[in-house]
Amino acid sequence: MTADRLTDARLTDADPDRLDRLDGHRPGPVAGIDIGGTKIAVLIVDADGAVLGRATHVSSVGDQDGAVPAIAAALDEALANARLTRNDLIAVGVGVPGRVDPDRGHVTLAVNLGWTDLALRDGLEAAIGRPVVIENDVRAAAIGLHQRGVAAGARDLAYLAVGTGIAAGVILDGRLHRGARGLAGEIGHAIVDRNGPVCACGQRGCLESLVSGPSIARRANVESPQEVYAAAVAGDPGATDLVDDVGRLLAWAIHTLVMTYDVERVVVGGGVSHAGEPFERPLRRELARLRAASDQAAELLPADIVDVLPAEAEAGAWGAVAVARTAFQGSEVVSHA
Fold this sequence. Notes:
The chain has helices spanning about 15-20, 65-80, 120-130, 135-145, 210, 215-220, 225-235, 235-260, 275-295, 295-300, 315-325, and strands spanning about 30-35, 40-45, 50-55, 90-95, 100, 105-110, 115-120, 130-135, 155-160, 165-170, 175, 265-270, 305-310. By secondary structure, the chain is an alpha/beta fold. It has two domains: about 10-140 and about 315-325, 2-Layer Sandwich (Nucleotidyltransferase, domain 5), CATH 3.30.420.40; about 150-310, ATPase, nucleotide binding domain (Nucleotidyltransferase, domain 5, 2-Layer Sandwich). A hairpin with a 4-residue loop joins β1 and β2. α8 packs across α9. Residues about 1-25 and about 330-335 have low confidence and may be disordered.
């Protein structure tokens, strides 16, 4: 699938030496790297959007000091699979689950990774010798989904990621919406139960503390959310009640996103969503209940407003590919509000 071009003004005031390394803005392969709480996924994609190579390291990046070597190792494996070298890449995009300063290339805070004020762009550029663009992983995924025309080509969409954490990337009128502090879409820290468990952010009863992958596992006292969904499929009443509650809370989150941003579509992805029908059924049931209870909800939450991505969608890695292309391409498709 041909990758559209997108706008990003972040490099217009950047160090000229970095821009000189873009080889006259020639088209060529880019790498997209998706950093997760439990894995590093890499795609190598050519100028036409064809996948040349990929690699997945099923482990976290570890502590802050080990982040750059771990990411570089995953990149090198994907390059080897593509029969390319680092020098063949035009740029590298990296999606990180946390608060990111794209202008400086810093990860200012990544709670689920244990990072604080990490100069990731500079570290990676020094290690691999190619231009690097850093972005929040969910926002990157939203850009990638828009760029590739997912969600029926909607110009107003939200991507809700349900994985180690919970967050949304929001595209409004074809533009990535960051918000005044760069935190637009952090719905995982909206409080949904004032008596709920303490969240990593310090508040009590945040959405993330109840429906993220680790939270689902904790609530069931098992190792993974996949075990919970498997038990629900097998008819376990406790697991069934839990996945019903997760679906209900996520439907409320979708309702909140639509009410707040008036988006045309909400795309749901992330590791927890890969449970498939057992994940979708209670979510869609609660959305139907909301529509039946309110004419307003019926208007704003039509039956086709939610798309759940299949496990093979690789939204995070494709989002990082889209971010990589911001290093050398420019058009009006996506820019920053």
